[in-house]
């Protein structure tokens, strides 16, 4: 097989170095025909010593027998381990321990649930009490506001009644007109934007 | 350890998953894993935890074997290839291969 590039470094290096590709498989490539001297050649296998062959086969047989026995031994060990893990003494003990632990945990869980339930009930009662208190306060405040509103309206009504005594009606229209004409008060004045009152300078206008 | 190739060393054992040496390591620094594979030429290397650096370090060669898993895979029907047979024979877990064919020709 070609081993890749081999750069020939022999000789003086004149000019650029050109790498050559050389096969290193042997003298012939795979496509060359065999030589004429090899025409009748029959390749024979090396001779086997029957005694050595017998000894070797026996040893191999013994080895493989031993390995097979080891394999079967491992299989039986693994099966025993699996059985022990599934139904042995240790497995039963572990199952009992697990059951006891489960019972303990369930009891603890029930106690915890009970405690939390009581806490929850207490909290709900507290919230109900606060709610009632808030509602009562709200009711009192609303009543107070209503009462204040009523008083305010009563005051307005009384004030209006008082003012109504000075109203001008058809009965006292003439009397009020005469009174306004006879009064010395003059409405003949003006007011500027700045708030200054401007009165006429001369009388009789 | 970067696994450069999983060129497996030895003969094909028909059918079951054999134990083989998988070559890893760097240039001029060999390192082998003993693996259980499904197919010799497949890239699918199942698993095994034992590894074996063959070159000498401090004058001896160190092998680490996970005997529990070797036993497990033997029960599952794994065969051994020849280098692994040698190594396990030397370790004492399996019968000695030296007793059959004599000393290893390369060592």
TrEMBL record, chain B:
Gene3D superfamilies xrefs: 3.30.1320.10
Protein name: Small ribosomal subunit protein bS16m
Keywords per UniProt: Ribonucleoprotein, Ribosomal protein
GO cellular component: mitochondrial small ribosomal subunit
InterPro entries: Ribosomal_bS16, Ribosomal_bS16_dom_sf
GO molecular-function terms, A-Z: structural constituent of ribosome
Listed SUPFAM superfamilies: Ribosomal protein S16
Membership in a protein family: Belongs to the bacterial ribosomal protein bS16 family.
Any one GO biological process: mitochondrial translation
Family annotation (Pfam families): Ribosomal_S16 (PF00886)
Organism: Suricata suricatta (Meerkat)
């Amino acid at each position: 097989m070609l081993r890749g590039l081999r750069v020939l470094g022999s000789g003086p290096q004149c000019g650029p170095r050109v790498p050559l590709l050389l096969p290193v498989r042997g003298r012939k490539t795979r496509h060359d025909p065999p030589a004429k001297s090899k025409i009748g050649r029959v390749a024979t296998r090396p001779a086997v010593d029957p005694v050595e062959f017998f000894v070797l086969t026996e040893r191999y047989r013994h080895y493989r027998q031993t390995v097979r026995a080891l394999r079967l031994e491992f299989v039986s060990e693994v099966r025993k381990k699996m059985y022990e893990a599934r139904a042995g003494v240790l497995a039963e003990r572990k199952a009992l321990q697990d059951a006891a632990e489960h019972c303990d945990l369930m009891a603890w869980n029930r106690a915890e649930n009970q405690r939390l339930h009581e806490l929850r009930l207490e909290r709900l009662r507290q919230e109900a009490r606060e709610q009632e208190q808030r509602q009562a306060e709200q009711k009192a405040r609303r009543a107070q506001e209503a009462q204040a509103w009523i008083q305010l309206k009563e005051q307005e009504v009384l004030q209006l009644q008082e003012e109504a005594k000075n109203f001008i009606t058809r009965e006292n229209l003439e009397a009020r007109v005469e009174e306004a004409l006879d009064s010395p008060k003059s409405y003949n004045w003006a007011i500027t934007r700045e708030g200054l009152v401007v009165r006429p300078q001369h009388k009789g206008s | 350890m970067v696994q450069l190739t999983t060129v497996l060393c030895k003969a094909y054992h028909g059918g079951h998953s054999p134990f083989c040496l998988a070559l890893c390591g760097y240039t001029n620094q060999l390192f082998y894993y003993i693996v259980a594979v499904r197919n010799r030429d497949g890239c699918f290397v199942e698993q095994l935890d034992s590894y074996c650096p063959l070159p000498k370090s401090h004058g001896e060669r160190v092998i680490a074997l996970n005997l529990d898993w070797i036993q497990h895979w033997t029960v599952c029907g794994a065969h051994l290839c020849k280098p692994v047979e040698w190594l396990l024979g030397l370790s004492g877990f399996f019968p000695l291969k030296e007793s059959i064919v004599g000393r290893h020709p390369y060592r």
